[in-house]
């Protein structure tokens, strides 16, 4: 069964790229323009659940541990938000084209599970990010994600697509994304452009997953227990990690980014920190996740930040 609903109409086919979506359904231009008109907010760590590349998380409006789901540093990637209109249950993912089918399936499942027992509602989909990049990575990911939702056995309403050409500005002859990140207010479902200086715990460990090519999208949160859960997972030792670390910043930028012209300024620093982490932890299944245990974090009631649970 194929059921993607665009502008209230069930679709037989999935749009091939964002350009054809905007051409056939101009209403999506208007909703995107509204989001682009909202000033960017800088959000601190209190009440934030930050979702990294190749991660997803889902929660409910009455979650006392999480008030904002957020993701940023998105250039060619896509931020995907799935929300149930009756219960307000909401999931967010930061997708880069890897593990898409499974991630989309999990997001829809989580939101349906969390919506059980609440009034009837629709499943709404919002897509933010990606731009008119010279290598067309963004369009490929957009199609990949739309197609995955199109294959779901439930009706899914696309309510926002702020992607591709609409999320692109030209400066100095170079195409740049306008919005690099968004937050979702879990109480209201409101989405707003934002930047998150604090990426939460185990940052380098979490980055190591996609840098070493682990394809799965990781579900990082248990909203029934209010626990941020990282792992356990393994990655292959990265061959030549010492050599990578000897390279110049520009070399790292050119070879380890899908969009080297427009990365945020901290990109190379973050990659170096991750490479060092991989160098020091070549076999995380052994040295990081001892006895195959996840790293659990709970919200500290006084500080409002994530603190590790010690076994």
UniProtKB/TrEMBL annotation:
<dbReference type="GO" id="GO:0005634">
    <property type="term" value="C:nucleus"/>
</dbReference>
<dbReference type="GO" id="GO:0008418">
    <property type="term" value="F:protein-N-terminal asparagine amidohydrolase activity"/>
</dbReference>
<protein>
    <recommendedName>
        <fullName>Protein N-terminal asparagine amidohydrolase</fullName>
    </recommendedName>
</protein>
<dbReference type="GO" id="GO:0006511">
    <property type="term" value="P:ubiquitin-dependent protein catabolic process"/>
</dbReference>
<dbReference type="InterPro" id="IPR026750">
    <property type="entry name" value="NTAN1"/>
</dbReference>
<dbReference type="Pfam" id="PF14736">
    <property type="entry name" value="N_Asn_amidohyd"/>
</dbReference>
